Amino acid sequence: MNGRNAIPFLDLVTTHRELRLELTEVFHRALDAASFIGGPMVEQFEHAFAEFCGTKHCVGVGSGTDALRFALMAASIDHGDIVITAPNTFIATTEAITQAGGGIAFVDINAQTYTLDPEKLLEFIEKNCEFDAQTGKLTERATRRRVAAIVPVHLYGQMADMDSIMDLAAKYNLVVIEDACQAHGAEYFSKKANAWKKAGSIGKAAAFSFYPGKNLGACGEGGAITTDDESLALRMKMIRDHGQAQKYYHDIEGYNGRLDSMQAGWLSVKLRHLGYWNESRRRLAHRYHELFADAGDAVVVPVEAPWMRGVYHLYVIRVPDRDGLRLALADAGIGTGIHYPIPLHLQKAYEHLGYRQGAFPVTERVAGEILSIPMFPQLSHGQQDLVVTKVREFLDERVAMTP
Q1: How many CB atoms are closer than 10 A to CB 334?
Q2: Average per-residue pLDDT in the chain?
Q3: For residues 183 and 185, what is the distance between their CA atoms, to the nearest angstrom?
Q4: In angstroms, what CA-CA distances link 210 with 191, 222, 225?
């Protein structure tokens, strides 16, 4: 960053400085107990995080990718089964699908929420699939493979329209695994349940990442799976630990995907502050909304649907000249990010799927316009004001240059 008044995109230093004594105590406890993998600190965190999410079970694992992969494996996604997800997400979502043995089918996103569009999901099913009511099996016509699951991605701290997705899943006998890696504490008002439901408590299971920059971030790698299904939780515990329910007795092949005890201890400390941090993010997001209110169509701000309480893992705006704005903000010492510049269906890693430019027009349009601007709980109003001022100065200059 340049300049004395540099504003970081994300500030992890202040958070850890504020919690230094509590986090250091976790390290000392781990040294004294010599319990570094699993053990009481992991179990305590699993219990606390399950309670926070409103689920019966939580299984701590090594990363968010592990979490989604293990959840899909435990849900019996067979080799070649099709799993539907959105192309506007980090590649870990699709890596987990293919590494669990599944095949990928993309469905475009909603232009306002940037999450999986239920209407386009229904369109995909009706146009591309056949449903056998007797067997309860949905089959993709082109490949004759079973369509087995949906992975809705709760993106930027906003949840997908879960009632609509769950209705389609029930109708076509599909498993729903939530990718909640960016949505710790986000809430969705379910008309079906007539209640607010936390991210991770609606699908068959849900995956969370505790990568350091997340709303609830570890001091390294970490992840967790939440579920109400006890048998699924037990199977995921076996998968994370080389397929063993008892040491050296392996019922299945598994992975080395366990959560470190120190990471669990640090997460337990941070979890006590997560509610406050999330509310701070919401207040800052709403203030951004107000500061950009008279910018008109020049800046598209995040839309929080009436059925949502977002936690603003990221604050993502859309502008026509995204790259120009990013350079201007960098010159002013303001950090930014792009999440994500190239949709997954256009990535080289997925050329073999046969998707071409234009396959998912909403995702492709959004990918060229989105810019994540500074968002973290300790962001000051003065810093926010400067960010908005610099954005508006760039936009005004761009208008002035237009013939």
Answers
A1: 24
A2: 95
A3: 6
A4: 30, 5, 11
Residue 231 burial (CB < 10 Å; 0-12/13-18/19+)? Answer: exposed
Beta strand pairing status for 244-246 and 370-373? unpaired
What are the C-alpha distances in Å from 50 to residues 188, 205, 257? 17, 12, 19
Task: With beta carbons less than 8 A apart as the criterion, state whether 49 and 58 touch.
Answer: yes
Nearest to 358 by CA among 376, 340, 372, 346: 346
Look at residue 296 in the predicted model and tell me its pLDDT: 86
Q: What is the pLDDT of residue 2?
A: 44
Say which residue the tokens 């250091």 belong to. 24
> Burial, 206: exposed, middle or buried (Cβ in 10 Å; 0-12, 13-18, 19+)?
buried
Average pLDDT over residues 386-401: 90
Tell me, what's the pLDDT at 162? 98
pLDDT at 52: 98
Q: What is the DSSP letter of 190?
A: E
Tell me the helices (H) and strands (E) count for the chain, helix number first: 12, 16
Question: What digits encode the pLDDT tens for the residues 173-221?
Answer: 999 999 999 999 999 999 999 999 999 999 999 999 999 999 999 999 9
User: Do residues 85 and 116 touch, judged by C-beta distance below 8 A?
Assistant: yes
- SS3 of 216, please? coil
> CB neighbours of 230 closer than 8 A, spacing ≥ 6?
56, 57
Residues 6+ apart with CB under 8 A from 107: 84, 85, 86, 116, 117, 120, 121, 124, 360
Q: Which two tokens stand for residue 15?
A: 């958070």
| Each residue's pLDDT tens digit, 267-284 | 999 999 999 999 999 999
Q: How confident is the model at residue 204, as a pLDDT?
A: 98
| Diameter of the chain measured on Cα atoms | 74
> What is the torsional sign of CA 281, 287, 292, 297?
positive
Beta-bridge partner residues of 57: 227
Q: Which position has the higher pLDDT, 126 or 29? A: 126
Place of tokens 């439901």: 197
Distance CA 90, CA 348 (A): 14
CATH numbers and ranges of domains, the chain? 13-269 (3.40.640.10), 275-401 (3.90.1150.10)
